[in-house]
Amino acid sequence: MSLRTVINPKFEALRTRIEALPERFGEGQLIYAGRNEIREFNWNGNTVAVKRFAKLGIIKRIIYTYFRPNKALRSYSNGMEIIHRGVSTPEPIAYVETKSHRLIKDLYYVSRVTTAKDIKSELIDKEPYNRQLLEAYAKFVASLHERGILHRDLNPTNVLYTQDGKGGCRFTLIDVNRMTFFDGPVPKADCMENLTLFWWLTPVYRAVLKVYARERGWTQADIDEAIHVKEVHDRRWVRRKKFTAHFKRKKH
Known about the structure:
The chain is of the alpha+beta class. The protein folds into two domains: about 1-110, Phosphorylase Kinase, domain 1, CATH 3.30.200; about 115-240, Transferase(Phosphotransferase) domain 1 (Transferase(Phosphotransferase), domain 1, Orthogonal Bundle), CATH 1.10.510.10. The chain has helices at about 15-20, 20-25, 60-65, 70-85, 120-125, 130-145, 190-195, 205-215, 220-250; strands at about 1-5, 30-35, 35-45, 45-50, 90-100, 105-110, 115-120, 150, 160-165, 170-175, 180.
């Protein structure tokens, strides 16, 4: 089995710990267990989060070895680019891959830990929603798109926030392996599609869209088009879920 690492130069002192991850991952404190697994470590006074991505089937092992960057490598490189563009994300520390029989086997992404909480608790789960946070969030998404940053999994659990003590909010992006970066602002059609990922077409969604449109200088016609894009997106999502559920019932 072979090992490949890419380490942020700022954290070169952690190289020995990072390279031992495949053997010692289970020693970390379990934070999340699902398809992926996240554990927390304290290394030389640095509290770090390590995400081990789900086991790969043979097809994806071939694809990620020879044809496209894998999720862990994309998380690392995207995180560095996000910070370069002036947006917060847990600082990338390292990317680790192991290979067996010349194919990628296991993938790890190492970053700093964040204590920020996701916006879902205040904008979706809470009634009435936090209007101050909503205003700040919509402005944040507008600023992302102005900076040419398109987070392709921009749901309310992947945007975290902390309050700065002056009534303002600081936002942090996580789960950043699916990103697209543009040299200029994100094209309007892509912005509209990206906004659909926030939530269902509810009053809180419309409120986000209203603030976002104001920040971007959109017209009422733009808002109407964005609503139409959202309606189409939601109908497709429901149909896809129904089809998947039907297929699973027939399979069993």
